[in-house]
Model the fold of this input.
Amino acid sequence: MIETRLVAPGNTSKEKSRIDYDYVLMTHDVLCDAFEKLDAIIHDVARRKDVRVIDASQQITGKDELFANHIHLNEQGSEALANVVAAEFAKILREGKGR
Done:
């Protein structure tokens, strides 16, 4: 699964103030680039291993109201993530295959 996070290229100043850049020792642009590269690696490995990737990031990343801090979801975010995962599992079951 692709990790969700508050960190996104279009973050507002308010959202950026919630990101602990001192902890990760990166600027906003470098952190966004690092996440993009990690996501690409996950997709590449999944493709080579012939496994499905749940990309929850597309639906949740960057949505301030879903995060307790820059990386951890709050209750609303956890529910949103559970819904994304459940929808993907339902799709897998409908297709009748494990990938």
User: Anything to note?
Assistant: The first helix runs from residue 13 to 16. The two ends are 13 Å apart (CA to CA). The chain has a mean pLDDT of 94. The chain is about 55% helix and 0% strand.
